[in-house]
Fold each of these.
Amino acid sequence: MRKKRFLITGGCGFIGSQVLKNLIKTPHEIFVIDNLSTGDWSWILERRIDLKICDIRSKDALNYIANVAPHYVIHLAAQTDIPTSIEQQQLDADINILGTLNVLLACKKVANFERFVFASSAAVYGNNTDLPLNEESQKQPQSPYGMSKSMCEQYLSLNENMDGFPYCALRFANVYGNKPLAKKDVISNFWDKLAHQKAPTIFGSGKQTRDFIFVEDIAEALILAIDIKKSGVYNVSTNEQTSINEVFQNISNLLQIELDPVRKAPRLGDVYNSCLSNQKFKEATGWEPTYILQTGLEKLREIKMKETLHATKNSDVVI
Ligand SMILES: NC(=O)c1ccc[n+]([C@@H]2O[C@H](COP(=O)([O-])OP(=O)(O)OC[C@H]3O[C@@H](n4cnc5c(N)ncnc54)[C@H](O)[C@@H]3O)[C@@H](O)[C@H]2O)c1
């Protein structure tokens, strides 16, 4: 395997740190840009990774990219919170659109640059109910966050049309895994509440569905995407729908906790059903998701048990 230079923006985040765990098993050189706004460097603890703490919108980031001259960029750094994107639309656009453009334009100046892999999202489809959604399905973003991802895809496509800029935009379904507490998706939220014997809240009937994909499958997909020869957009998903009620039941069973959820009115703007076809990405890479929701949740339990054991061992040390 020829040694290449990988730059991961947002490498200290939830998905980025999983990508790094996979990449450090390879001989490639690894570089990270992260401003640590939501990411945490202590997750990584690997000397082989060169971390530049800076903002993707900064001149420092441009200079770093020029110096590193990466072959591949996996661009994950973003403002990822949908409510924040609604409350602070300019900030969201600044980080997600202008920040991405900053990184993209810097990559265009790198000689021998091979591919830009962009973390897009199912949020670009918004409330499109023509399930399962494929890459040709109409984009109908319902939030500034979804809009920003859609805009970035268009900038990438435009640059490919203008001068063959090689890219691949992956539209992730709902990613779950061992997230830090501050970053709650529905699975982390239910898990945390139930583990503390508290009843989680289900908004609406709970019959609304999502396509849940385990973070390890996403990390693998991001690395495989560098070898896709045809620029374009690809869904990365399980192609399975699970209702919020089923998620609640699965986690309750795994933790062996019997509690009724608190039921509240549906939230405005919530997508009702979501499911993404992963056919195109499978055909392009041979990738298959390793985990279905049940096995992903079991793996999550294993990771969390190890963490607890580790924390208990450390707190047993008498000074
Ligand atoms: N987690 C999901 O369910 C999901 C779904 C679809 C798409 N995505 C996309 O995947 C990517 C990674 O998401 P995540 O869940 O790991 O989020 P995360 O918040 O855990 O990671 C984002 C990382 O980017 C860094 N960052 C943020 N703004 C920055 C800036 N201006 N300059 C430099 N670094 C900055 C943060 O410190 C963090 O380490 C994002 O682009 C997100 O939009 C995530």
Note: The mean pLDDT is 93.
Amino acid sequence: MYLGLEKGVALVTAASRGIGRATAERLAAEGMTVIAASRSAGGDPETIGPGSIVPLGHDLSDVAATAELVDTVVARFGALDVLVINTPGPRILPVLDVGWDDWCVAHDMLLRPVVQLAGAAGRTMRDKGAGSIILLSSTWVRQPAAGGVLSASYRSAASAFAKTLATELAPAGVRVNQVMPGATGTARMYGIVEMKSGANGTTVDEEIARVVADIPVGRWAEATEIADAVAFLASPRASFITGASVPVDGGALRAGH
Ligand SMILES: NC(=O)c1ccc[n+]([C@@H]2O[C@H](COP(=O)([O-])OP(=O)(O)OC[C@H]3O[C@@H](n4cnc5c(N)ncnc54)[C@H](OP(=O)(O)O)[C@@H]3O)[C@@H](O)[C@H]2O)c1
């Protein structure tokens, strides 16, 4: 499907690997100039322009730099047409083991950057009368799971923020949507099953089988499959979709039909 994204400028955060990286590559494949921000990114890109990925060093825990990130991109690249807010995942812990520091770190990774980035992009896009903001979150927003209280709690707040922003910016031509990945085969996911295998005295394959047993499609996602949904929602092909929360989870969510 022709998405009509070419020549636009996109910013994707937490984009050096996993779902964020796959999203940056997908948008670049559509002909966008993609600024891929992460802590490990840096150096000068070989090319800048349609179809290129421009690495930008950025730490989402830096409050001042995150407040300025959107303006920095607009000043350097002349526009911001698509913002994809991806964030690093929080600790996986039982509720009763979560310390106050864990809550503070999770707030500063999962909620504060969403408010800062979507707010700054929302103002720029409103003034331009066009733009698309995608929040990458998790199916745990809709269906919390054991060990996932930090993710479910702060992403639920971020989801409400995104829905409200979508309502307020729709008349200005700015769309705001949320993509909720289910289990996806990334470094983070392999780290989680390895941790569970250590804790439960099982093999990694047994832990993967437990995760997959809950997914009707019978496997977990490739990061590229999440990226495909993001690219569609970012594009003019999704011109009448805003305020939506789209699960990409192989049918794992049973509620919310
Ligand atoms: N994988 C899944 O099954 C799954 C399912 C649902 C939701 N999610 C969520 O989706 C998000 C991405 O997951 P993933 O599996 O793709 O994770 P991942 O493979 O671990 O990638 C995490 C990304 O976050 C970046 N990052 C980490 N700390 C950062 C910081 N302080 N500032 C800026 N960037 C930072 C990393 O780059 P640097 O280290 O270079 O900074 C990396 O690019 C997470 O929030 C995760 O919880 C994942």
Note: Residues 14-20, 38-40, 58-61, 86-89, 136, 138, 151, 181, 183-184, 186-189 surround NAP (CB under 6 Å).
